[in-house]
Amino acid sequence: MAELLLRLHLAPRPFALLLFASSSSSSSSSVSPSPLQCHPCFHPHRNNNLLSIQQHRSSSTACSVSRRHSEKGSLKNRGRRALPFRVLFTLSAAAALVFLRRRRTLQQAKARELMAFRKEEEGTAALAVPTIDTHLHVWASPEESKKYPYFPGQEPTIPGSAEDLLKCMAEAGVDGAVIVQPINHKFDHSYVSSVLQKYPSKFVGCCLADPTDGGGGVKELQRLVEDEGYRAVKFNPYLWPSGQKMTNEVGKAMFAKAGELGVPVGFMCFKGLMLHIDEIEELCKEFPTTKVLIDHLGFCKPPKNVEEEDSLKHLLGLSRFPQVYVKLSAFFRVSREPFPYKDTWQMLKQLRDTYGADRLMWGSDFPFVTTECGYTNAWHVLPPANSNEAFFSEKEVKACMGGTAVSLFKGGWKNHSSGL
Ligand SMILES: [Zn+2]
Q: What would be the CATH architecture of the domain defined by 129-408?
């Protein structure tokens, strides 16, 4: 019987049924059998008693697999036919239970294996983070400027069309970018909008807030986000009416609206962070759900005096607001050294230590960077990963160079080939 149980346990379920049937065929003649089918042909047996099943098994050519098993079973089990059917029934139920348990264990093991495989796949996908340039500008070429005129007095001095940019990005292996509305077109977004429409897989737009008296204000911000698809807005404090701060009525209304629309506000503190830190902190405190981007390392220079130290301290201090992110961009604007701007490395470490790489993002400030270190070099400010000087882990580099942007601008870079 132990042998039978073992065979029942080890055999696939349909065969277990056959083994049981063959072992109990003689004792079952007095019991009214239930309709059964013979695996693997599922041939129905009209004379439904176990004996006829066995007869069928030994004669039917269509049931060769069943026959093989039943023949083995009947030889092995000869002499054990006197066991009462009820005992056999109980034992077979126990065997079925063992079998089901074993099957469940196997299924669980398979599920665990599948989960592990999926996790591995996710890990690989996480490694394949696209490279995103989170700060650059484009403006119309002289030819295009007939259709998209420059703002009077803001004619560009260097080329900066979308096509010029795309060439640079292809050369440097950059997948996507955030285009920040340039001052050259001031509040006229038509050129950048046309580029966003033309290359939806490449670009995400950051519009320019208009805080001027009687200007676009909140309404225009909402239109640009909802109708034109911009995903961020830039606050340029020097565009506010003279003597007014970014915390004035229109400033607060636009900052609040940006939070409502789910678009981050970028602060461009060209003349120094300390001139605007109070305004930024006030807005962050009052509207904690509005995300904030500090452009170009807050224009903080590697500190050489008390004022510069204070400025950096305040930039690092902004990390206490979870909504604040910092753009590691336009190194040529803050460094005192030529490429690779080693004097900024200490600041980068401090920013990584206070914000974490998932709140830092890389940017080139194209096209201005083309007359400095060049577009491709802009991506190699950090020491090489395998050098003794390396201080960002591979994971941190990936976050800064694209991962943070991808999670902040969800749904951006539509249909990008990297699967975004
Ligand atoms: Zn810029």
A: Alpha-Beta Barrel (3.20)
